[in-house]
From TrEMBL:
Cross-referenced Pfam families: YdjM
Transmembrane stretches, start-end: 61-80, 87-105, 144-167
Molecular-function annotations in GO: hydrolase activity
Organism placement in taxonomy: Archaea, Methanobacteriati, Methanobacteriota, Stenosarchaea group, Methanomicrobia
Keyword annotations of the record: Hydrolase, Membrane, Transmembrane, Transmembrane helix
Domain of life: Archaea
Name of this protein: Membrane-bound metal-dependent hydrolase
InterPro entries the UniProt entry points to: YdjM-like
Length: 171
């Protein structure tokens, strides 16, 4: 899954949750949800594909593990207890949704790191960040009924509907 899939599906999950739980209505900052939905990739892609490309060669490393987000969640709970910064609670939830959207259960050595070993498996795409981007743009946006393509289209639709609703409110 890519940018619009992560943003759109995560926003949709928060929106539906907000509709089902009236106490949450009006309390979700969707701009923060959008950023938090991309956070595992914003951390791991530059780190594993650029800075540590020679040793790790993967865009799914530390921020794609449950351990990372459990630790982040604990830190956020401590911060929340002191300052009641409700918007921070969105962060670990959106990040775990990202892991679900990435089907991380199919790569248990990453998801449950370090319980299944200390190393991360290398991505199937060899090379550094430019090679990775070229692969993404050349192979992953083909209009076929793939999970990636469908999730991207759905994500774009959710983002467009959200933008139109926001625009109609501020006018």
């Amino acid at each position: 899954m890519f940018v619009f899939g992560h943003i759109g599906l995560t926003i949709l999950a928060f929106y539906l949750t907000e509709q089902w739980y009236p106490k949450l209505q009006g309390k979700v900052n969707y701009r923060f949800v959008a950023i938090a939905a991309l956070l595992p990739d914003l951390i791991d892609k530059p780190l594993g594909r650029f800075l540590l490309a020679d040793s790790l060669a993967s865009g799914r490393i530390f921020a794609h593990t449950l351990l990372f987000w459990v630790l982040v969640g604990l830190i956020i709970v401590l911060i929340w207890q002191k300052w009641r910064a409700d918007f921070l609670l969105i962060l670990p939830v959106a990040a775990v949704l990202h892991l679900l959207e990435d089907s991380m259960w199919q790569t248990p050595e990453v998801l449950f790191w370090p319980l299944l070993g200390w190393s991360f498996p290398a991505d199937e795409i060899a090379g550094g960040f430019p090679d990775y981007l070229m692969h993404v743009f050349s192979n992953c946006y083909e209009p076929a009924m793939s999970v990636v393509f469908v999730s991207e289209v759905l994500g774009i639709v959710v983002c467009m509907v959200g933008a139109m609703r926001w625009y109609s409110r501020v006018r």
